[in-house]
Write a structure and sequence with these properties.
The chain is of the alpha+beta class. It contains three helices and eight strands.
Length: 133
């Protein structure tokens, strides 16, 4: 159970984001392609109706072998929550597990990504960097 829980939180952290500066410029900068710290997954964040969502746009061969595939929706319903924070849901499609997600943009090229499961009792956080090429 601990191994699955650790993997879940690592996956949620890799799939969730923690918030952006307030204002129209910040909202636009949230969109784009973002790499996790190991640069083995890239998520493309776009507008989805009145919120933002993120889909895997690239995964390393090792991540693909573990079930992370391009096209999978991993962030949903990210909406502004004030003071540059976006809140929504993170999904781990391989295990069909979801949890809360927050996104905070520290700089134009750095997002803090946080995912929580088990009613917010277990959380993991990562810094994602913008992919420019």
């Amino acid at each position: 159970m601990i191994g699955i829980t650790t993997k879940l939180f690592a996956a949620l952290a890799a799939l969730s984001l923690a918030a952006a500066p307030s204002g129209a410029a910040a909202a636009q900068s949230l969109e784009g392609r973002w790499a996790n710290p190991k640069r083995n997954v890239i998520v493309k964040v776009t507008r989805c109706g009145n919120a933002y969502c993120g889909k895997v746009s690239w995964a390393s061969p090792k991540k693909r072998a573990k079930g992370t595939a391009p096209g999978e929706l991993v962030l949903t319903d990210l909406k502004p929550a004030g003071q540059g924070l976006y809140k929504g849901r993170a999904v781990e499609p391989r295990r069909n597990i979801s949890g809360s997600a927050t996104v905070r943009q520290l700089t134009p090229n750095v997002l803090v990504v946080k995912g929580c499961a088990a009613a917010g009792m277990l959380c993991k956080e990562q810094r994602w960097t913008r992919v420019t090429s």
